[in-house]
Write a structure and sequence with these properties.
Elements: H1 2-5, H2 17-30, H3 43-50, H4 54-66, E1 70-73, E2 77-80, E3 82-83, H5 88-95, H6 100-105, E4 117-118, H7 131-145, H8 159-170, E5 181-184, H9 187-198, E6 204-209, H10 213-221, E7 225-232, E8 235-236, H11 238-248, E9 252-255, H12 269-282, E10 286-290, E11 314-319, E12 331-334, H13 340-351, H14 356-367, H15 370-397, E13 403-404, E14 412-416, H16 423-432, E15 435-436, E16 438-439, E17 446-447, E18 452-456, H17 462-488
This protein binds pyridoxal-5'-phosphate.
């Protein structure tokens, strides 16, 4: 208990007591004063010591659990989670030593065996790639530019493409100039270049919890401290975000305001405005990862933060990987003016420039209007899958006892098993039945027994969606029943209170 003796809660502060306590315990964990597997004090004991209601402790512990800092063991108490400081696969492999898929997962890959239905990958199937159009435009570029297409390119990006992107962005209400655009070799490189330019060892970065695994990996590779703030169905928990900003003074705040990966949640307009207000108030640099706002099936307002950023606080990252061809490795940043030089230097030392050939072909793609047709085609394909998926979830998952809400677009659906169930185990059971799901634990910065999992429609054909969801619902029902039966024979439950 001595570690908790120094905790002082200010009853006169406008900040809730549970929030104060949450932050103090989180700090103890981040500073290494509370170690992995350390047990937190029993609720009543800590409440008595701090002179507060037990509900304050329950709420603080609940928030710590939601953020992945602690986990609950029924009948035993609340414990500090393991950190993901190692390769994620190392941690999962301790639990599932023979599972090669888990070994691959944290490298963004998954092995698909024959007859498997994969809801795990959010990458489009290659039959959707517009290869014929690309071939025609590629030849046109080669005839027109000859060897110039293969020389070193301007690091900031091929100028005519940047001009085309200014027009493209104006259609989504982002008014910018060619000098603010930086071409990158995919959004992942964008995150990396931004980190290289701004993040030093021990700097803090705030992310949503859960968040995109590739971003976690990049920030960790810079030695950054990652503070995660839970995302709710209408966007990040704003109150907690502001508290975390005040406390940690982050170098960057990394957000996905539209169809967030992995949850599929989108921010309300109010929350988007509030983020910009916070950026202004605390002089923040916000990184907006827009990997999917194009696929908005049932939502009119998919405004980007960049489109409402009047003070130049948002770095906008655009990926085309989900709607075009990921192997092209092409994306772009829209930068606030004040940071051009830093980003340009970081990009130059990463790969000098993005492929000039690909940039030239993509430029023609945009200028000839072929892009518009392609996007409409992708929207049609994905919307059909999205609608089938929704119907199947309603038909087969309602009885299973799992929790979900429907996104209004995008490719990902997010689910929670009932309390105490581990989606990593469900992943193993589903794979035995030839269904691939993505366990949610890979999207959290702390290792805990995540109850969540993601299903994506990107690489499942319509005919397989119903088969897959029906089978998966059976696996889930069996999985929950099996675990419940096991619990019947377990030690008697000891309540925490
Ligand atoms: C949220 C998010 N950002 C960035 C990326 C990386 O995209 P790219 O292929 O453009 O590097 C992905 C890929 O899945 C993603 O989901």
């Amino acid at each position: 208990m001595e570690k908790y003796i120094g905790i002082q809660l200010d009853k006169n502060s406008p900040q809730h007591l549970y929030m104060q306590l949450f932050q103090k315990i989180r700090q103890l964990i981040m500073d290494g004063k509370l170690k992995e597997k350390d047990k937190l004090p029993p609720i009543r004991q800590l409440a008595n010591m701090l002179g507060v209601n037990t509900s304050t402790i329950v709420n603080a512990y609940g928030l710590l659990e939601k953020e992945g800092f602690v986990y609950k063991k029924i009948g035993s108490g609340t414990f500090v989670s393991e950190r993901h400081d190692n390769d994620l696969s190392d941690i999962l492999l301790q639990k599932y030593p023979l599972d090669e898929d888990i070994r691959l997962m944290d490298r963004g890959q998954i092995q698909i065996k024959e007859n498997m239905i994969s809801f795990a990958s959010a990458t489009p199937t290659t039959d959707l790639f517009p290869v014929e159009d690309f071939k025609i435009l590629l030849n046109e570029v080669l005839d027109r530019d000859k060897g110039d297409a293969f020389g070193y390119q301007e690091s900031q990006g091929y100028f005519p493409l940047r001009e085309a992107l200014v027009n493209y962005l104006a259609q989504s209400n982002i008014q910018t100039k060619t000098e603010n655009i930086q071409i990158i070799s995919g959004a992942q490189q964008g995150i990396d270049v931004i980190s290289k330019a701004f993040v030093d060892y021990n700097d803090t970065i705030i992310v949503e919890s859960p968040t995109y695994t590739g971003a976690i990996g990049t920030f960790k590779s810079r030695g950054a401290k990652i503070v995660s703030v839970p995302i709710l169905k209408d966007g990040i928990d704003i109150e907690l975000l502001e508290e975390s900003i005040k406390l940690y003074k982050p170098k960057l705040v990394y957000l996905m305001p539209n169809f967030q990966n992995p949850t599929g949640y989108s921010y309300s307009r109010e929350k988007k405005m509030k983020i910009i207000e916070l950026a202004k108030k605390y002089n923040l640099l916000i990184v907006e990862d827009d990997y999917l706002s194009d696929l908005s099936f049932y939502r009119d307002d998919h405004a980007t933060l960049k489109s409402i950023d009047e003070i130049g606080s948002v770095i906008y990252i655009k990926s085309f990987s989900k709607i075009f061809m990921p192997g092209l490795r092409l994306g772009f940043l829209v930068l606030p003016k004040k940071i051009h030089h830093k980003i340009l230097a970081a990009k130059h030392t990463s790969d000098i420039s993005t492929s000039g050939l690909n940039q030239r072909v993509f430029d023609l793609y945009l200028k000839k209007g072929i892009w518009k047709n392609h996007i409409q085609y992708m929207e049609k394909i994905y919307k059909e899958r999205f609608d089938i998926m929704k119907k199947c979830i309603e038909k087969y998952f309602t009885q299973t006892g799992i929790d979900y809400s429907f996104p209004q677009g995008g490719l990902n659906f997010w689910f929670s098993l009932p309390e105490g169930y581990d989606a990593n185990k469900l992943y193993v059971e589903a794979a035995k039945n030839n269904i691939l799901i993505l366990p949610g634990s890979i999207f959290f910065t702390c290792q805990n027994e995540s109850r969540c999992f993601r299903l994506s429609i990107a690489s499942v054909y319509p005919k397989d969606i119903e088969i897959g969801i029906r089978k998966l619902s059976q696996v889930i029902e069996k999985f929950i029943k099996k675990d419940t039966d096991k619990r019947k024979g377990a030690d008697p439950y000891t309540p925490l209170l």
